[in-house]
Model the fold of this input.
Amino acid sequence: MRLSYLDKLGNTPGHIQHFNKKTLKKLLEKYFKEVEIETSTYG
Done:
């Protein structure tokens, strides 16, 4: 982990998509039967 953009929780300016836990889970549930989102101490 480089800790770049730590104040923005890793969302770098060049990223096209930004997800929170709820929207990421909703997207993945379209393709997978079981989805579990785990976060680090920074998430």
The chain has one domain: 1-43. DSSP finds one helix and no strands in the chain.
